[in-house]
User: Fold this.
Amino acid sequence: RMKACVLYANEDIRYEEVPTPAVRDGYVLVKVKAAGICGSDIPRVLRGGAHYYPIILGHEFSGEIVEVGGGAAGLKVGGRVAGAPLIPCKKCPDCAAGNYSLCKNYTFIGSRLPGAFAEYVLMPAGNAVAFSDDVARGHKPSRFPTTLPTRRRRFSSRPRSRCTGCIAAVSSGGKTSR
Assistant:
């Protein structure tokens, strides 16, 4: 069993014990080390915006693999990963063309599937983005921003859009010098 923040209804989120997900072929179980609260999580909690209840939210996360299902090549227990939350169907025309971010039959960790506001999260091995051991333990990368641009309209393409006092920071996590 594990602890998780479970959303039961609008403004009804509870920290409680739930079953730990069972690993299956092609999946990995990740012990969550860091999870971010996204702006899309706010309406899910406050405005009845969840796809269903109960649900464990959390789609921006990283952690350590604790169990590997069969067929999860290249991943091992102890490996550190960030999660890519978009899970395409891999059957539609967009997926067949390699345009996974345009899949209309996708599912999503943390909004349609149980997410990372928990001790453990289950995800397809292909969504586990390994990161190198030279990334300091205190730095928790998230690959989510790389899945977002094609699913959203560009801010600059909106007529009369203004951003006063806004800053967007995008980083590849590269080394910096002091």
Summary: The CA atoms of residues 6 and 106 lie 22 Å apart. The longest helix spans residues 41-46. Confidence is low (pLDDT under 50) at residues 143-178. The first strand starts at residue 2 and ends at 9.
